[in-house]
């Protein structure tokens, strides 16, 4: 995915791990940012905006960011606002917020990084931060959730438990961040079962539930009995198809184990709320410096959570394998593959 910039004092930079202490590392970038923007004047309420690629009601990727925004409002007393914005609407929406005096603007996805770099030049007193992306400047940063770690474990789990030896990955939009998590899922599956078959499908939409369901049904028709998604709001189509055909699904980004379908056996999650709050605190204090932070398991941000209602369906040896693999990741003995972009 992006060129790993070990950065941001604003967040603990977590290269690997699932528990234990945080490790802060100074960062370097293509052009190392050194400028620090001013904080929010005493007595003035900070304004924070969030742009998402889909509805914050998706119980997944976008919902996680919205929870972070709510925590910023709760903990810092900030004035907050949010809206969906994609493609040409990104710059228009972010520019409007900047003109209205918003101090911090989040864009929840790789697709916000480049537009923010352009806008950052026009609004030097506004902080722009994207969830993923490698381009930074004094007032433009990014953080990347090392979701590949949990997808790798999900791949191992699915491969070990599969009766057919076939797994599936259903994506919405084909973007670098999603492709990287799918590559990690495949790597985990192949590490656990070298002869496993992994089907990959992109529907082209993170909102179209019907397309996601049909893609999942097609994959199940090819033998898939464990399915993971990166489909945002369209994930319900994946879960519905799995329920209909009696196969297991993995949730992603948020804990989706309680999905009404009853098909989710585990979720590859990002607990990203603390990252949003930590960054907002730095902006408020005037200590923010542009860069990229990688957040992984050893902060507790990333994890694979087995559905407690279906825990008895997971063989003891599979649970042991997952625990042992997590331990290796935490110690740094196992580096999970991820694309740089």
List the helices and strands and how they pair.
Blueprint: E1 47-52, H1 61-76, E2 79-84, H2 88-99, E3 104-107, H3 113-122, E4 127-131, E5 140-145, H4 148-161, E6 166-171, H5 176-192, E7 197-202, H6 209-221, E8 226-230, H7 235-245, E9 248-253, E10 264-270, H8 273-285, E11 292-295, E12 302-306, H9 316-331
Parallel strand pairs: 1-2, 1-3, 3-4, 4-5, 5-11, 6-7, 6-8, 8-9, 9-10
Antiparallel strand pairs: 10-12
Helix pairs in contact: 1-8, 4-5, 4-9, 6-7
What this model shows, in words?
The chain is an alpha/beta fold. The chain has two domains: 47-145 and 271-299, 3-Layer(aba) Sandwich (Rossmann fold), CATH 3.40.50; 148-270 and 307-331, 3-Layer(aba) Sandwich (Rossmann fold), CATH 3.40.50. It contains nine helices and twelve strands. The chain has helices at residues 61-76, 88-99, 113-122, 148-161, 176-192, 209-221, 235-245, 273-285, 316-331, and strands at 47-52, 79-84, 104-107, 127-131, 140-145, 166-171, 197-202, 226-230, 248-253, 264-270, 292-295, 302-306. The strands form two sheets. A six-stranded parallel beta sheet has the order 2-1-3-4-5-11, with helices on both faces. A six-stranded mixed beta sheet has the order 7-6-8-9-10-12, sandwiched between helices. Residues 1-37 have low confidence and may be disordered.
């Amino acid at each position: 995915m992006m060129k790993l910039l070990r950065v941001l004092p604003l967040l603990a930079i977590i290269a690997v791990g699932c528990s234990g202490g945080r490790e802060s590392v100074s960062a370097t970038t293509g052009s190392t940012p050194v400028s620090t923007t001013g904080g929010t004047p005493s007595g003035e309420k900070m304004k924070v905006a969030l742009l998402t690629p889909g509805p914050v009601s998706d119980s997944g990727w976008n919902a996680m960011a919205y929870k972070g925004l709510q925590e910023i409002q709760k903990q810092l007393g900030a004035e907050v606002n949010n809206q969906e914005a994609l493609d040409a609407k990104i710059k228009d929406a972010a520019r409007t917020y900047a003109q209205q005096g918003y101090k911090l603007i989040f864009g929840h996805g790789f697709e916000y990084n480049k537009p923010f770099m352009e806008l950052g030049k026009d609004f030097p007193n506004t902080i722009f931060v994207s969830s993923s992306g490698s381009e930074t400047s004094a007032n433009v940063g990014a953080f990347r959730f090392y979701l590949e770690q949990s997808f790798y474990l999900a791949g191992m789990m699915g491969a070990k438990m599969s009766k057919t030896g076939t797994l599936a990955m259903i994506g919405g939009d084909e973007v670098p961040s999603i492709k990287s998590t799918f590559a990690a899922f495949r790597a985990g599956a192949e590490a656990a079962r070298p002869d496993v078959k992994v089907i990959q499908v992109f529907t082209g939409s993170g909102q179209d539930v019907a397309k996601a369901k049909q893609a999942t049904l097609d994959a199940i028709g090819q033998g898939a009995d464990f399915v993971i998604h990166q489909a945002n709001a369209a994930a319900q189509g994946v879960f519905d198809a799995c329920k209909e055909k009696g196969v297991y699904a993995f949730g992603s980004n948020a804990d989706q184990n309680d999905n009404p379908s009853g098909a989710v056996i585990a979720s590859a999650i990002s607990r990203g709320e603390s990252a949003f709050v930590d960054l907002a605190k730095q902006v408020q204090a005037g200590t923010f410096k542009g860069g990229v932070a990688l957040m992984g398991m050893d902060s507790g941000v990333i994890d694979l959570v087995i559905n407690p209602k279906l825990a008895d369906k997971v063989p003891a040896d599979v649970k042991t394998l997952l625990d042992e693999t997590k331990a290796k990741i935490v110690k740094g003995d196992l580096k999970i593959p991820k694309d740089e972009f």
